[in-house]
């Protein structure tokens, strides 16, 4: 499976390498004298400009020029309570991801994993809570996923969080 990711600016790549190096440093000790993180916090620059204020973001899958994020739970804001039943579709055509559309998945309050097939033709999304399901979309138009199937049985109850395409 090949996953294409957007190009990183050199400064973002350096920051990414620093974060990976720091995450590999030290042990999982609970001893407060065994410092895992450096004494001085690292300043992080915000590179993305894709705020999602109406829902909590859950999972991410990048496929070519598009990224798909799922949402979870119920978020209450000034607009009211909004379920985590949306797949957000992002264009990666430029350095700053742009929200281009979204798909509401009925019968769910949380969406788990999202994954696209290696050939880019299909996408699967896991849904929670009960009864839970695995929803399959056609990506004939990657900006307009079309639901083509939904799998549910007694084993998808109380919900599916992890779904992978193999």
How is this structure best described in words?
This protein is mostly beta strands. Helix content is 9%, strand content 37%. It contains 1 helix and 10 strands. It has a 4-stranded antiparallel beta sheet, with no helix packed on it. Strand 5 and strand 6 form a beta hairpin.
Main sheet attributes: strand count, strand direction, barrel closure: 4 strands, antiparallel
Instruction: Name the beta content range.
Output: 35-45%
Q: If you compute it from the alpha carbons, what radius of gyration comes out, rounded to the nearest whole angstrom?
A: 18 Å
Counting helices, strands and paired strands, the structural category is mainly beta
Shape: globular
Unreliable spans are 8-29
Helical proportion, percent range: under 10%
Number of helical stretches of at least 4 residues:
1
Give a count of the beta strands, DSSP E runs of length 2 or more.
Answer: 10
Q: Report the mean per-residue pLDDT as an integer.
A: 79
Strand line-up in the sheet with most strands? 1-2-5-6
């Amino acid at each position: 499976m090949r996953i294409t990711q957007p190009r990183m600016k050199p400064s973002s790549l350096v920051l990414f390498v620093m974060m990976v190096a720091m995450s590999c440093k030290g042990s999982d000790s609970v001893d407060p004298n065994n410092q895992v993180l450096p004494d001085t916090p690292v300043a992080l620059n915000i590179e993305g400009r894709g705020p999602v204020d109406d829902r909590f973001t859950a999972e991410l899958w990048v496929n070519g020029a598009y990224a798909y994020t799922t949402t979870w739970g119920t978020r209450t804001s000034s607009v009211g309570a909004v379920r985590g039943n949306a797949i957000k579709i992002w264009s990666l055509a430029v350095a700053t991801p742009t929200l281009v559309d979204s798909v509401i998945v009925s019968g769910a309050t949380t969406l788990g994993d999202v994954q696209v097939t290696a050939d880019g033709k299909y996408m699967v999304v896991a849904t929670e809570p009960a009864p839970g399901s695995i929803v399959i979309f056609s990506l004939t138009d990657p900006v307009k996923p079309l639901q083509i199937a939904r799998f549910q049985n007694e084993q998808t109850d109380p919900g599916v969080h992890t779904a992978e395409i193999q």
